[in-house]
Amino acid sequence: MKKILHTAAAVGVSCFLASAANASLVTEWEFAVTAGFTGAATFDADTGGTTIETATELSWGKTGGDYTDTTQNSTNSRSALVITNPAVSGSLFTNGGPAVTSTLTHYNNTILRSFESLLGATINTTFALTPKVPAGEPRETIDRDITFSFIETPNKEDCGFVSASECDDIFVLNPADLTDTFIYNDFVYTTRVIPVGLGPLSDGACTVAGAETGCFGLQTLEGQANAFGVLVDITARAVPVPATLALFGLGLIGVAVTRRRKV
After folding, report:
1. Which domain of life is it from (predicted)?
2. What is the pLDDT of residues 42-97, one digit of tens each?
């Protein structure tokens, strides 16, 4: 029995070390990211004005209005969400910080309440990764839908929440939609899509948005073009193979029993 335990200890330790040695962390990746609206935007029941929905633009307000012209008043203006740089590629380093991809801009202009306004939409993103250092086969493309709700707030003195303008519009989304994980060469990799400025909203903002306390989102200043860079990053942690862990554990038991007998 003693000999068996010694053998298990040796096998367990050697297998654990061999597994650790053979697992190669990918330190650099080639990536390609795309982003676009899916055609699933919803608008309120008002019938004034017009709405436009393409893969890179959602706009609403006065028919023929120009959302880039901040001098227009509420009767002839439009608001919009626009994605620029919808397809971006480059290099991404594991645990090395984010890379810049697309930009999402909210042209937050004052429009008549009788105009249709956005209630929510979905952005589809694809995230293709190919190991570069060390080189490897391309990973399966990560395809995710990021759904958000939008609150076009009335412009009044009492916003009902802490606001930098009169009154900030509000986006609410689920942070879980921004994260994916996969296992490659005994490492768990986590990828994220990170809109700059995303964070927990105040209780007041969540209430105005009709969301639960602790909701996440963005606030955008009235009368401005609010641009948010969209970042991606990748992090990793080692995960020993379960079979290797079992052998390693058996080996540790053997070592412990042997030491106890020597005492």
Report:
1. Bacteria
2. 999 988 999 999 999 999 999 999 999 988 899 999 999 999 999 999 999 999 99
At a CB cut-off of 8 Å and minimum separation 6, what does 102 contact?
33, 35, 83, 84, 85, 86, 88, 229, 230
Residue 130 forms beta bridges with which residues?
A: 30
127 neighbors 31 (Cβ within 8 angstroms): yes
Q: Rounded distance, CA 155 to CA 152, Å?
A: 9
Q: Are residues 205 and 223 in contact, defined by beta-carbon separation less than 8 angstroms? A: no
User: Which of 219, 258, 247 is CA-nearest to residue 10?
Assistant: 247
In this structure, the number of other CB atoms found within 10 A of the CB of residue 114 comes to 12
Could you tell me if 216 and 95 are in contact, meaning their C-beta atoms sit under 8 angstroms apart?
A: no
Which of these, 189, 187, 191, 190, lies nearest to 239 by C-alpha position? Answer: 187
